[in-house]
Amino acid sequence: MAASDLLTLTSAGLYCPQGDFFIDPLRPSPRALITHGHSDHARAGHDHVLATRETLGIMALRYGEQFAAGTQAVRYGERVTVNDVTVSFHPAGHVLGSAQILIETKACRLVVSGDYKRAADPTCAPFELIPCDAFITEATFGLPVFRHPPLQQEVEKLLRSCALFPDRAHLLGAYSLGKAQRVMALLRQAGWDRPLYIHGAMEKITRFYQEHGVDLGDVRKVAAADRPTLGGEIIICPPSATQDLWARKFPDPVIAFASGWMRIRARARQGGVHLPLVISDHADWDELCQTVTETGCREVWVTHGAEDALVHWAAQRGLQARPLHLIGYGDEEADEGGAEVSA
Ligand SMILES: [Zn+2]
Ligand SMILES: [Zn+2]
User: What's the 305 CA to ligand 2 centre distance in angstroms?
Assistant: First the structure.
């Protein structure tokens, strides 16, 4: 059986006819399997949602407990029969609860990766390689220019700046779900033991991580009155907040931004970023190529990002490759309005 019989492209997103379900559908759907909690993948209003417990929790946090008529939590590796197919969720290493979804029939194994990375992340389960016949990969950073540097080196840049400018506040822009908690954990690993301060917009999601056993140390919400007193501290906030009036009350702030896009100097300059940190929750070019190769797949479909380069690379290696041109999935690393989990 061809992979294209197992999963088809519709205007609402990827649909599995034999299982009668959608994956990360763009519109309210009767049955949705959700890879992870970012808002372009996890939308409200489906009749039934199958996802990891953490992803369901993130959806409830964002949309309220009534975000779907019915839900079912699935553990990593647990096999669930949905009509004529078997599905299972496997760690994607992207954010807490994120999963690749394996769809199996006797004839074919197909993996939808969602968003993923291979680099270390103390805040979520590490990416698990799933051998398959067909692999659907994201390609947010699907160009050879995107090679994420070692994490320690990027974290060290921030710590060095804190040491050089001990009287200035360091405002670190980071996406509210995933990136913010990851940089906190990385700072702890690097030995930063002062309290970490966060913008109110990321308080709920950060507490959610802590309640799920992610150790972030002493994390405090910034009170308006405290801002002028936070010289020498690290304050983590949605990227857009670094450009707000909100940021001006801190003592002579150094603006940092953690994103894979910080690899592009012009982008950092445009955003008024003094200290670009190349820290990404998406696979870089090498990780994308490595992962496609290691799955042993014969067929690869490429979605959101620079699709053509990866399609070309795969075709040269004798794989069947196609770009999906799915519209409607964003890129949270570029999102200046990262304050979405603010309710
Ligand atoms: Zn994502
Ligand atoms: Zn995505």
Answer: 9
Cα 327 to ligand 1 centroid, rounded to whole Å: 15
How many domains does one find in the chain?
A: 2
* Residues bordering ligand 1, an ion, CB closer than 5 Å: 38, 115
Q: 16 is in which domain, residue-wise?
A: 3-145+281-342
Q: How far is the CA of 297 from the centre of ligand 1 (A)?
A: 23
Whether the predicted pLDDT of 182 surpasses 90: yes
**pLDDT above 50: residue 88:** yes
How many other β-carbons are positioned within 10 Å of the β-carbon of residue 123? Answer: 22
From the centroid of its chain, how far is CA 258? 13
User: Do residues 99 and 243 share a domain?
Assistant: no
The ligand with the least distance to the CA atom of 112 is 2
Residues 19 and 133 placed together within one structural domain of the fold = yes
